[in-house]
Amino acid sequence: MNTTTGPEALAHLTGLIPMKRLGRAEEVAVLIAWPASDKVSFSTGAVYDISGGRATY
Question: Which Gene3D superfamilies match (predicted)?
């Protein structure tokens, strides 16, 4: 997704993220698969922030 984004723009965006890095596809995939698993059979819904903390400011 970021292959066409210039290095300066990526550095700026990464600087806005409290964890100081971009998320990996594997990290997002794990969160997407978890609510669909049998381990979460009692949940009726939730909102998960997977922004590295950026959405908390």
Answer: NAD(P)-binding Rossmann-like Domain
Read off the pLDDT of residues 20-54 as tens digits, 9 standing for 90 and up: 999 999 999 999 898 888 888 888 878 888 888 88
Of 48, 24, 52, nearest in space to 36 by CA: 48
Query: What torsion, rounded to 10 degrees, do the Cα atoms 17, 20, 23, 26 define?
Result: -150
Q: What is the largest CA-CA distance in the chain?
A: 44
Close Cβ partners of 54 (under 8 Å, ≥ 6 residues apart):
16, 17, 18
Residues near 17 by beta carbon (within 8 Å), at least 6 away in sequence: 51, 52, 53, 54
- Number of neighbours of residue 50 by Cβ within 10 angstroms: 13
Read off the pTM: 0.65
